[in-house]
Design a protein that fits this description.
Shape: globular
Order of helices and strands: HHHHHHHHHHHHHHHHHH
Low-confidence stretches: none
Mean pLDDT: 81
Strand content: under 5%
Distance between the termini: 63 Å
Number of strands: 0
Number of helices: 18
Largest sheet: none
């Protein structure tokens, strides 16, 4: 009976964890979704487009949402393909802000925070390094755009469909109810958004602390056994699981954030989880592809496929070179474990201040 209660408690806390992520995303959209849309319409400079993609996605915390917006703008003729490609690349970096924020929930315990932060930032570094390598090649020679155009011509006329994430179906009604109650009490969406973000972060830290406590108890050994035996036993399996789970829940932020507590408690290792993170990058492209097929616009389909091809190329490039982003993440996490304020500065600079300043400069 005690074991059943622990399992039920873990499920309840896990639900709260997912609810907080959904609530944070929705709250950021209250503050800045329209701003993000306006940002995405203002440039012909590929470098600015890249930083716009980072900033817009950091604001709304969802590369799926950003790429779906971009796909819609391309379909409507507001953006052309050349403008859209750098924005999609930037969205890949911006989407990692969520799991980096989640890792801050472990900040009170030094070793735990070091492990969790390394797991969050390895996703950051992977996407940053891929962009550093592929962005100039794309600007000069357009290889992913040409490949995406070729495949989109084959797919023109294919019927689109929509798909509802089962996780969102469970969590979103509660998040919407909380937001609606807040809107009834507070008319200013920006103010409400800030309040909900603070509340969501507070609940997220509570949920993480409870999850970690349960994992450290009787559940930990069995969970470790399940993870070792069934989930991350090989690179290929980790990659496939990350891809399928993210395609199912339609959010790489959720897929990657959920393993941060496992990393923090030492149940899984960074090297084991890395392919899973890359799979999440691939799976998150499904939303934009479905959105593009619904529009039936060849240019929109091209952009959605470009996102998929870009992420596949990054995966093939860095699976054999995984030591580079893993080393970078571990080096940064060791520094932040000693001086934890560095983590907050890192989040603000990389995802908001740095892209914003560079947009103004260019």
């Amino acid at each position: 009976m005690k074991r059943v209660l622990k399992v039920l408690q873990f499920i309840a806390v896990l639900y709260l964890f997912f609810l907080c992520i959904e609530l944070m995303g929705g709250s950021f959209k209250l503050i800045g979704k329209e701003t993000a849309k306006e940002l995405l319409q203002v440039t012909d400079n590929p470098l600015v487009g890249l930083f716009l993609g980072i900033l817009a996605t950091s604001i709304i915390q969802s590369s799926s949402t950003t790429t779906a917006i971009v796909v819609g703008m391309v379909a409507a003729g507001t953006l052309n393909i050349e403008q859209a490609v750098p924005m999609v690349m930037g969205a890949n970096i911006g989407t990692t802000v969520t799991n980096t924020i989640v890792s801050l929930g472990h900040i009170r315990k030094r070793k735990e925070f070091e492990l969790a932060f390394s797991g969050a930032t390895v996703h950051d570094f992977f996407n940053i390094f891929v962009v550093i390598i592929l962005f100039p090649i794309e600007v000069l020679f357009h290889p992913t755009q040409k490949l995406a155009t070729f495949f989109s011509e084959l797919m023109v006329g294919v019927e689109g469909t929509t798909f509802q994430s089962p996780l969102k179906a469970i969590v979103k009604p509660t998040a919407n109810a909380i937001t609606s109650a807040g809107q009834y009490l507070i008319s200013n969406n920006q103010v409400l958004g800030v309040i909900l973000i603070i509340a969501a972060l507070g609940m997220l830290i509570f949920a993480l602390s409870r999850m970690v406590k349960i994992m450290r108890g009787a559940v930990a050994k069995k969970l470790e056994l399940i993870v070792d035996r069934y989930l991350f036993t090989s690179t290929a399996r980790s990659l496939v699981i990350g891809t399928l789970v993210t395609a199912l829940v339609q959010s790489s932020s959720v897929t990657t954030s959920v393993v941060i507590p496992l990393l923090g408690t030492g149940i899984v290792r960074l090297e084991t989880v890395f392919p899973y993170m890359l799979g999440a990058n691939i799976g998150t492209t499904i939303t934009a592809i479905l959105a593009a097929l619904v529009t039936g616009n060849p240019a929109a389909v091209t952009i959605a496929l470009e996102h998929l091809i870009f992420n596949l190329l990054g995966t093939f490039l860095f699976l054999p070179l995984r030591g580079i982003p893993i080393w970078a993440a571990k080096t940064l996490s060791r520094a932040t474990a000693k001086r934890r304020w560095i983590a907050l500065v890192y989040v603000v600079l990389v995802f908001f201040a740095f892209p914003g300043i560079l947009i103004l400069l260019f």
